[in-house]
Write a structure and sequence with these properties.
two-stranded antiparallel ribbon; about 65% helix; about 220 residues; 10 helices; single chain; globular; mainly alpha
Amino acid sequence: MKISELASATDVAVPTLKYYLREGVLHAGEVRSRTQASYDDSHVERVRLVRALTGVGGLSIAAVRRVLEVIEAPGVGPTDVMAAAAASLYEPELEPEPEVPEVRRAQRGASKGDGSSARELVDDLGWHIYPDDPALTALDDAWSACSDAGIGLDAARMRRYATSMHRVAETDVSSVPADPAGAVRQVVLGTVLVDPVLLSLRRLAQQDVAVRAGAISPPPKG
C-alpha cells in the first residue's frame, strides 16, 4: 500500500507518518521508486503500537524509540524482560546536575522525618530489585511529594500499598507469554497501557469502600 493508504488504514495523517519514519519508530517501506515506497500490515501494526504508546501511554517519541528497541532486540532472555521494559519507560533527565541526587536524598529524609526510602522499603519487603532501577528514584520523589503535602504516607502505609501492588504484579507476570519476543511486547505494553486501567479501578474501589463505610451516599438503583 502507498503511504496515503497507510494513513487511511491507521487514521494517522501522512505528515505524522513521515515524522515517525524520520524518528525511526516506523520502519521504512519497500522502495518502489525515487519518490514512492510500499507499506504492508507490519507498518499498520507498528503505527497502531506507536499511537497506543504516545496516546494512552503518554510516552514521548524518544521513549517510544527505546521501547521499540527492547521489543526488537535479538536474544533478550525472560530474566531481562522486566528490567529492560521498566527502564525503557522512564524519561532520562536532560541536564543532570551532580548536586541534585544529594539534595534530593537530603530532602527525602527531611520531609519523611524517619528517613525512610524506597530502597529500604523494598529491602524490608524482601523484594529482588536492581540497585539502579529508575523506579526507586521515582518512588522516592513521589513519596516525598506526598509527605510534603501532609498526606502522612508513612512506612507502614507504604508497606500495605506495596503488598497490594505485589499481588497486581503477580497477575501481570502470569499473563506474560513464554516466547521472549512476545514477553517483551506484553511487558512493555502492559506496563504502559494497563496503568490507566489500574488507576481507574482504584478510584472505583475507593467509591465502593466509601459507600460501604457510609461515608458517601450509595448510587441510585436502576
